[in-house]
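Page 42, continued from yesterday. The earlier attempt failed because a stray header line got pasted into the input along with the sequence. Redoing it now with the clean sequence only.
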Amino acid sequence: MSLEFRHIAHAYGQVQALEDISFTAPAGEITCLLGASGCGKSTLLGLTAGLLRVQQGEIALGGAVLADMAASPPPEARPVGLVFQDGALFPHMTLSANVAFGLPKERRGEADGWLAKVGLAGMGARYPHELSGGQQQRAALARAMAPRPQVLLMDEPFASVDIVLRRALRRECRILLREAGSTVILVTHDPAEALDIADRIAVMEGGRIVQFGTPEELHGAPANAAVGAIFSGAQIIAGARTEDGLDTAFGLWPLASLGAGLPEMLPPGQALDLLVHADRLVPVADVRGCRVRDVHLLGPRSRVLLEGAEGAAISVETALPVDAGKTYSVLPDPESVRAFVRSSALQATG
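This time it went through. Structure tokens are written below.
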């Protein structure tokens, strides 16, 4: 069943944690809430789980209201499973007992089968402290999936697992979750994780959803420079439209070098946020250019950190020789820059 958020707002005292959140997590898909700490994603998860009461708006499951200002069923009364960052297994219970805990008596014999589905076959008699971090997360996933919840909520489920295992575990989890058919909401601060596992991503900032869509949509048509930087690995620099190009802290970039990346018909003086990739920038020796702050060899290429006007910094990856004693201007390769009209939110945060 699809999970729908309708104009959700939530505050902790005078602090507004969520503001007018509206989107639909499609049935049987994995939807990621992506954002930095404090953006409101865990609050939204808590409202869905029943750990917090809805203050404004409503949450619907399959078209029927699950929770609103008038009614907020407790977690045990909702068709929702939870997987936390630390797994939260009962330490005094075996894995089989952990998985069987939320099942009716007639289904408790299924526990070992669910453990096998997550790669823990034959380990039902072990206790949580006898497992690695990755194995504990697998057991927590089995416990959450065993009751066959209509909705599965996952709060940073891979954060405590080492990075190599994390990649393999989340890809395996994606297959398991899609096969189970539950509607999944997964909270993460890691863009790579969101891209690895999600069917749709809600990018959150300051209690709002900045953009909601598939990974392809967010990568190909970002709503602003911040979203574009998240999914493309580009860096954001400030620029201003001039009569014949862009004025940046790293030199004047002529229009001819910007290809289709510059919105047409912008007035002179228009403030812009520019997405630029380090490996698509060319350092050019220039006595009026930027100071070299650092040169780091990356095999056949070097990563160069340049300091421009007013302390602005930019990274350049190049195979060209760079002399730390010289100054350089920076020019982008044609078609490599994406420009966005600077938003008030970006201006406020810098």
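Notes: Confidence is low (pLDDT under 50) at residues 344-350.
Reminder to self: strip header lines before submitting.
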